[in-house]
Design goal:
With 392 residues, the chain is α/β, with parallel strands linked by helices. The chain is built from 14 helices and 15 strands. The chain has three domains: 164 residues, Cytidine Deaminase, domain 2 (3-Layer(aba) Sandwich), CATH 3.40.140; 149 residues, Cytidine Deaminase, domain 2; 48 residues. It is globular and about 60 Å long.
Length: 392
């Protein structure tokens, strides 16, 4: 172990010198097993580790996260994958370990944003998980440990330069944290608030029916928000986040951004998308891009100039807006967490369009009555948890 680690540079190549170190003189709680992680890698790794550790404690299930630029693109617990999920997450037909299922879900929720991610695992990384990571474009992984087989697999990635970090599970940071901005030191108590089912008791809508699956998904969304750059909201379903709207100045823009990602996740499961005639030689990232183009308005331009031939063996028919809406209307039982209160009912209106039935937010807006009234109109369940989860 060492007290400090010199880094190549900071956020950008011109920001030198750069290092991570323990100000109290103790050893770093993280060990580099392979590669040479940089400043942003460590920012992603240490934030994502906190998320998966807390998610594991709250749910009792192996947990994983896919991080990009200090916010999660996805987070999930290790529930088994359905046949459709195995197809949209490109995992193949084999059964996977729970921690591998957790990462497949975390990575697969928003594959565009997860491109070049830093992965976090709450449990020991096994060969199943390493084999999932191996073909993906990823910067590194952090876990409490690795099997010999998993470590050997990961050391072959990126010509032997893949970043593999091991975190000391027993490490507990000091209760007061510091950061500097423009040479000025900020100090605050760490956000040690415990998120569990006790924060889901104050149901303020006429509908009081909050099933166990929704409680789990709301906790997943709230714990994810605790480590997401604010303003933020997170949609969750079936044990995983399906859309994150991070770092927006407006609450409604968070809801729209995350809702669009949740819609994209659901549209990928439509038979029309599952059966797209991809060329056998297409690379995995190009396949993701092709699906994104196919689901977007620009697909008409692709048809016009014949670029579809780059992706497909034959020209797929257009996925009309009417067809998309009809498929999206089949999505339901979605949960939504918000890191601060909703100031207007328009957030509920947008969430409803993406199948949201359950909402957890702090409450405390002067327009709470408007939010509740809008939710009651759709038969939704809204929980006021009284907890703000800003993260900067």
């Amino acid at each position: 172990m060492a007290n400090e680690l010199e880094l190549k540079y900071g956020c950008n190549p011109n920001q030198k010198p750069s290092r991570i170190f323990m100000a109290d003189g103790s050893d770093l709680p993280v060990t580099v097993l392979n590669g040479r992680p940089g400043y942003i890698n460590f920012m992603d790794a240490l934030n994502s580790w906190q998320l998966v550790k807390e998610l594991r404690a709250a749910t009792g299930l192996p947990s994983a996260a896919s991080f990009k630029h200090v916010s999660p693109a996805g987070a999930a617990v290790g529930l088994p994958l359905s046949e459709v999920e195995r197809k949209i997450y490109f995992t193949g037909d084999q059964e996977l370990s729970p921690i591998a299922c957790a990462y497949a879900r975390a990575r697969g929720a928003d594959r565009m944003s997860s491109y070049g991610d830093f992965a976090a695992l709450s449990d020991i990384c096994d060969a199943d998980t390493a084999n999932l990571l191996k073909p993906e474009v990823s910067d590194g992984v952090i876990a409490p440990g690795y099997t010999e087989e998993a470590l050997a697999i990961l050391k072959t990635k990126k010509k032997g330069n893949y970043n593999v970090l091991q975190m000391d599970e027993s490490y507990r940071p000091a209760p007061i944290e510091h950061k500097q901005v423009f040479g000025i030191t900020f100090e605050q108590g760490r956000n040690e608030i415990l998120l569990d089912e006790s924060c889901l008791t104050n149901i303020v809508t006429a509908n009081k029916n909050l099933p166990e699956s929704a409680r789990r998904d709301l906790l997943i969304s709230l714990i994810t928000l605790k480590y997401t750059q604010s303003n933020s909201v997170a949609y969750a379903k079936n044990g995983q986040v399906i859309g994150v709207g991070a770092g927006q100045q407006s609450r409604i823009h968070c809801v729209r951004l995350a809702g669009d990602k949740a819609d994209h996740w659901w549209l990928r499961q439509c038979p029309k998308v599952l059966n797209l005639p991809f060329r056998e030689d297409i690379r995995r990232p190009d396949r993701d891009n092709a699906i994104d183009v196919y689901l977007g308005n620009e697909y008409m331009d692709v048809l016009k100039d014949g670029a579809w031939q780059y992706y497909f063996t034959e020209q797929p028919s257009v996925f009309t807006e009417e067809e998309k809406r009809a498929w999206l209307d089949t999505n339901t039982e979605v949960s939504l967490g918000s890191d601060a209160f909703f100031p207007f009912g328009d957030n509920i209106e947008r969430a409803h369009k993406s199948g949201v039935c359950y909402v957890s937010e702090p409450g405390g807006s002067i327009r709470d009555d408007n939010v509740i009234e809008t939710a009651d109109r759709y038969g939704m369940v809204v929980v006021f948890n009284g907890i703000r989860l800003f993260h900067h």
